[in-house]
Amino acid sequence: DGGITQSPKYLFRKEGQNVTLSCEQNLNHDAMYWYRQDPGQGLRLIYYSQIVNDFQKGDIAEGYSVSREKKESFPLTVTSAQKNPTAFYLCASSTGLTSSPQHFGDGTRLSIL
Amino acid sequence: GQQLNQSPQSMFIQEGEDVSMNCTSSSIFNTWLWYKQEPGEGPVLLIALYKAGELTSNGRLTAQFGITRKDSFLNISASIPSDVGIYFCAGRKGNMLTFGGGTRLMVKP
């Protein structure tokens, strides 16, 4: 089945540690996105990529980094510079056409130990 | 970044009742999308609206793209317990989405 796979489902980070969240899609989508969701709030854009080897900062990119070496993969690293990383992280993808909606993975919940 | 104004923030209704929620913005969007999110999962697309004035249905769900392109509403008719979840609107410009804060729907059997 085609879809977006995020892993792990739950992740714990120690103080001062970098962690990487995985996002893989087999939909042949060009565009991929990372969002952060805090309790009771909507989604805020962290980073997005419209094509392989290119990515752009979203509204809340500080303390995060990404790479887009392959079309199907868009990993997100939460660095130690992100002082409040506890949140639900959602990855999405779309064909990149303006008429194409974004489809989401099932998310990764990150917590601080 | 801007967020859309989505209301109400939460609703607690009796099974069988109709539900209405809406989103407004000071900006114009080219597309309006409505998603549903259940606990611990990602949002699932319910309805996509592409033209001002467009009225689209998906089963018991009906959504409209406002004429001004600055608002949209979602109606759910004859609610059932599995309608429980958080409903998000999203407005799109180009490939970028701006999300509302969500409407948490609770249905009493």
Commentary on this structure:
- The complex is a heterodimer of chains A (113) and B (109).
- Chain A has 113 residues and is an all-beta fold.
- In chain A, 0% of the residues lie in helices and 50% in strands.
- Chain A is built from no helices and eleven strands.
- In chain A, the strands form two sheets. In chain A, strands 2, 4, 5, 6, 9, 10 and 11 form a seven-stranded mixed β-sheet that branches. In chain A, strands 1-3-8-7 form a four-stranded antiparallel β-sheet, with no helix packed on it.
- Chain A is globular.
- Chain B is globular.
- The N and C termini of chain B lie far apart (39 Å).
- Chain B has strands at residues 5-7, 10-14, 19-24, 31-37, 44-49, 55-58, 61-65, 71-76, 85-93, 96-99, 103-108.
- The model of chain B has no long low-confidence stretch (mean pLDDT 93).
- Chain B has no helices and eleven strands.
- The A-B interface holds A 4, 6, 31, 33, 40-45, 48, 50, 58-60, 90, 92, 94, 96, 98-99, 101-107, 109 and B 1, 3-4, 6, 30-31, 33, 35, 40-45, 48, 50, 88, 92, 94-97, 99-102.
